[in-house]
Specification:
GO cellular component, one term: ATP-binding cassette (ABC) transporter complex
Number of helices: 8
CATH topology of the largest domain: Rossmann fold
CATH superfamily of the largest domain: P-loop containing nucleotide triphosphate hydrolases
Order of helices and strands: EEEHEEEHHHEHEHEEHHEEEEEEEE
Organism: Phytoactinopolyspora mesophila
CATH architecture of the largest domain: 3-Layer(aba) Sandwich
GO molecular function: ABC-type ferric iron transporter activity; ABC-type quaternary ammonium compound transporting activity; ATP binding; ATP hydrolysis activity
Protein name: ABC-type quaternary amine transporter
Shape: globular
Distance between the termini: 54 Å
Bound molecules: adenosine-5'-triphosphate
Strand content: 35-45%
Largest sheet: 6 strands, mixed
Enzyme class: translocase
Number of strands: 18
Strand order of the largest sheet: 6-7-8-3-9-10
């Protein structure tokens, strides 16, 4: 694969009076996979369509490698961008065979070359034997791989995926996601995919760009986004977050959980981010916290615990529950270098 990096600089876009992208910039290095993560309506699909050339930005620049695809003066049409796209509904043509679907973007090539490229793309997704079938006769996971084969058949430099798993039922989603993950890792093609699902973004993304209301609020590795979210909103969007009120003095905050070491110096009233799995729970008849609810998930247990100050906190412990509803308990914080956000009145 002849892949290339993607650079988006200061892209804005309005529909009518409403600006939906406010100066978005992001970069993906060649061969990396970036998840664009955000709630419904935040502008993810619009950004993807701008990179594909299906929408024009009002301002800003889009580059693939060294090639400027759009900069307010010049616009390269979608078919000359070397960008492959997989849509949310996969958009397979029901009246065409699998092979004809995969070859759809190759119609300008000589027939023999088209046949070869279709066979290559189908082999890459492990479905070389299904070329003559009609898409409707295939499973959801297979159809999804055909859509991927169609996107890679023209040998694009970049792949764009719009909510690629949302059409699959929950039972199939995990399995297909792993298959596609494996495939994309083998292809080594620069990929940008859109999702509103934090787990999907973390599992697939080498990096995650978190989008909120038309702005990228953080772009970093999934582990960094989870451990050090840029703000409270990101903290709560990318997983369970307890925001514990406290008072910071340098690298130490005093909270109802006791003293917590902070990653960075800060002073004054703060909310300290405490992930549920960084707390341990122990039975203690004289403890001033009480278990309100226990949810056992098999691999772990989530307990809702009411603290002395009446705050409810989520605690995630491995394996079976250690305490039951109404038990008195003691919580200890075992995380290192917590993140604290200044509390404004
Ligand atoms: N062609 C259009 N005309 C007018 N408004 C549009 C158009 N396309 C998108 N919008 C609006 O732009 C905003 C961003 O939409 P977009 O589809 O990019 O969001 P999204 O984050 O991908 O959401 P979802 O996950 O629901 O698809 C929304 O308010 C949407 O209604």
């Amino acid at each position: 694969m002849n892949t290339a990096g993607v650079h988006v600089v200061g892209v804005t876009k309005s529909f009518g009076e409403v600006e939906v992208l406010h100066g978005v910039s992001l970069s993906i290095s060649a061969g990396r996979m970036l998840a664009l993560l955000g709630p419904s309506g935040c502008g993810k699909t619009t950004l993807l369509r701008i990179i594909a050339g299906l929408e024009q930005p009002d301002a800003g620049t889009v580059l693939v490698g060294e090639h400027v695809l759009s900069d307010g003066r010049n616009v390269v049409p979608p078919e000359r961008r070397h960008v492959g796209m997989v849509f949310q509904d996969w958009a397979l043509f029901p009246h065409l065979s699998v092979a004809a679907n995969v070859g759809y973007g190759l119609r300008k090539l000589p027939a023999a070359e088209t046949r070869e490229r279709v066979a290559d793309a189908l082999a890459m997704v492990g479905l070389g034997h299904l070329g003559d079938r009609s898409p409707e006769t295939l499973s959801g996971g297979q159809q999804q791989r055909i859509a991927l084969a169609r996107a890679i058949a023209p040998r694009p430099s970049v792949l764009l995926l719009d909510e690629p798993f949302s059409n699959l039922d929950a039972a199939l989603r995990g399995q297909v996601r792993t298959e596609v993950h494996q495939l994309l890792a083998e292809l080594g093609i620069t990929t940008l995919f859109v999702t509103h699902d934090q787990e999907e973004a973390f599992v697939l993304g080498d990096d995650v760009a978190v989008v909120r209301e038309g702005r990228i609020v953080q772009q970093a590795a999934p582990t960094a986004v989870y451990a050090r979210p840029a703000d409270r909103w990101v903290a709560e969007f990318v997983g369970d977050a307890n925001l514990m009120p406290g008072h910071a003095d340098g690298r130490l905050a005093t909270t109802v959980l006791g003293p917590v070491t902070l990653e960075e110096s800060i002073a004054g009233p703060v909310d300290v981010l405490v992930r549920p799995e960084s707390l341990a729970i122990a039975l203690d008849p004289s403890g001033d916290a009480q278990v309100e609810l226990v949810e056992f998930y098999g691999h772990d247990t989530v307990s809702l615990v009411r603290l002395a100050g009446d705050e409810i906190i989520r605690v995630r412990t491995p394996g079976a529950p250690v305490a039951r509803r109404d038990d008195r308990v003691r919580l200890t914080y075992s995380g290192a270098g917590a993140v604290a956000y200044p509390r404004t009145p």
